[in-house]
């Protein structure tokens, strides 16, 4: 059976694309953020994932406000980058894993999650930037991918409890996949930030750090909060932390923290990084 080696939760701030394109990683503004990645690169070299399941939110590329699925899974042979244009250079397509995509789709529907199945899908910065950050040598050492989109954009949103259950259902699907592949789960977005309105620039460092710690020790802790609570605590766009929660749900009851980094602000966003090994 397939093996889930662990998970990584990481921000997907679009401005990171410009830093990568212009080689700004050692600039004072960017260095504290990029310095968090070498320990995770070293761990991934040991874990050797073959496939990455990326849990993220689409930013109007495939779904706009008039048609917004709660959950969608990609089932395409490859995924093309078609981002808004924040400085990331054109990158080669990301290869898909059709076998795992359909295994997950069948299993998740059996588990009573109503999905939108996408046999064509474009990917934006929420997908491309985290993969570029975690797999800088992906052209020479390619990994296959399965995009999983959650609605963190248009109300009503799935509850924290529902997202955690969705992650646990993803785990069951992967564990029942007849393959010897090694699978990494990735959740992207957040942490606390609000980009517009009266609270533009809002960051809640104490809650961010507690959330990161509870993901390791007690992910069910997050389910005490309603969506309205989480928006109040983290900002309108901070609700992307639901993607982190789904990632954690896919990792099983117990994980070991590999590495964590937290830096504020990057483009008015609390930039978090959390790598977890499955136990």
Strand content: 15-25%
CATH fold type: Protocatechuate 4,5-dioxygenase, Chain B
- Strands, total number: 11
What is the element string, with H for helices and E for strands? EHHHEEEEHEEHEHEHHHEE
The general outline is: globular
* Order of strands, widest sheet: 6-3-8-2-9-1-11-10
Integer-rounded radius of gyration: 17 Å
Gap from first CA to last CA: 16 Å
CATH class: Alpha Beta
Characterize the quaternary organization of these chains: single chain
- What kind of sheet is the major sheet? 8 strands, mixed
Description:
This protein has a single domain (about 5-279), classed as LigB-like (Protocatechuate 4,5-dioxygenase, Chain B, 3-Layer(aba) Sandwich), CATH 3.40.830. Helices cover about 30% and strands about 25% of the residues. With about 280 residues, the protein is of the alpha/beta class. The protein is globular and about 45 Å long. The model has no long low-confidence stretch (mean pLDDT about 95). A hairpin with a 2-residue loop joins strand 10 and strand 11.
Topology:
Layout: E1 3-10, H1 16-21, H2 31-34, H3 38-47, E2 51-56, E3 71-74, E4 78-81, E5 94-95, H4 98-110, E6 116-118, E7 122-123, H5 125-134, E8 144-150, H6 160-175, E9 182-188, H7 205-217, H8 227-234, H9 241-249, E10 255-266, E11 269-278
Parallel strand pairs: 1-9, 2-8, 2-9, 3-6, 4-7
Antiparallel strand pairs: 1-11, 3-8, 4-5, 10-11
